[in-house]
Amino acid sequence: MAKVKSKWVCQSCGYESAGYLGKCPECSSWGSFVEEVQAGANSKSNSAVILDDTKPELISDIHIGEEIRVSTNISEFDRILGGGLVQGSIVLIAGDPGIGKSTILLQTSGELAKQGKKILYVSAEESSGQLKLRAQRLGVSGDNLYIYPQTNLEAIKAQIEEISPEFVVVDSIQAIYSQTITSTSGSVSQIRECCNILMQIAKTKNITVLVIGHVTKDGNIAGPKVLEHMVDTVISFEGDKYKSYRMLRSMKNRFGNTSEVGIFEMGSKGLVEVKNPNELFLNERSQEAIPGSAIVVTNEGTRPLLVEIQALVGATPYPSPRRVANGVDFSRLLQILAVLEKRVGLNLSKQDVYVNVMGGIEVDEPSADLGIALAIATCARDVVVDSQTVIIGEIGLSGEIHPVNNIEKRLNEASMNGFKKAIIPYANRNVASSKIKTVPVKRLMDAISACISPQ
Fold this sequence. Notes:
Oligomer: single chain
Distance between the termini: 85 Å
CATH architecture of the largest domain: 3-Layer(aba) Sandwich
Shape: globular
CATH superfamily of the largest domain: P-loop containing nucleotide triphosphate hydrolases
CATH topology of the largest domain: Rossmann fold
Number of domains: 3
């Protein structure tokens, strides 16, 4: 009788060890190792090579046809995909539980079915009846939409062979298991094997596969990072599930731009596209100018977004002052506070500082630095920013204002939304706009003087 071999695999990063380890040496996570039985030497994995008879070709001899894309009829989804779904590709949708991953793919399936496309929706976490109830609420129907509640990959593969769909949706990859792997579903080995087989199905049969992946508490896709490398497109679903706005962000796209974002609003009948997000974000703005509020123009992909940044500064009752950042990078906030103390002279060492981005979106671009700094400074000095002014600029450690890209698009967007004045970096002064007054500034102190007005 052959000896059964096993290995210990980290469920966070996929690191393999011959024995159990309390702490993973690769990702430093504790208690993440799970024992997995290795397949015998004579057993053959179900994931064979995609094309065994292929031979190397000169790049000059390779013929490529026209790239075929299929529109989802959801313009915001098409935007981040680069114009639509590419046939034969595999797309990974990742996000927190309850954020709307299943909703967007069920709506997409309904739109594709209306175009006469055949879709197989594999539901590994819900029954057919549960999915039918959701489809009725979303108004999704179609003669070409097949629902298949199944977790066994071999059974799924057999149905793909029988139905021959043009699109396959897998909800979710963590619940699917293959009989060729002895570990439980959701383990690193299962996720890697199942995704590999789905990738082969997509490439060999020219079927577009859309896969849902869960996200851990750290914001990483559950399972090994190799899952992201195996797929063609990785789309992150962001947003606070307790608020209505959702943002789809392309993290990887072999067929399009990786800087695009799509914005949706969650309603009673599913996700609704937001054609003009600036109008919605600015509607949440207080009608009265208050200290600690500033409007910044951040660039998300090719789209300028106007968002309100609010700051609250007050004396702390604690031994150490609190710094809280919602929607902005925490380390970036600490850097801005250090510049305000050293270059402007604000004493914030005994003050609590809270910074929040309205609308529940994340602002990662450095061009929002100046808006964050001015929101904090105006709250600390109890003055207000002119309500008709937008702020654009990146702050250096010496207090200088660095230039930003796409300044002309930002100014045009601000002008279209009724703003009359813009504080911009001095290096961008040559980009003039007849529709909005620009005030170029070199240093942080100059920006504070240029935009505030007494309350």
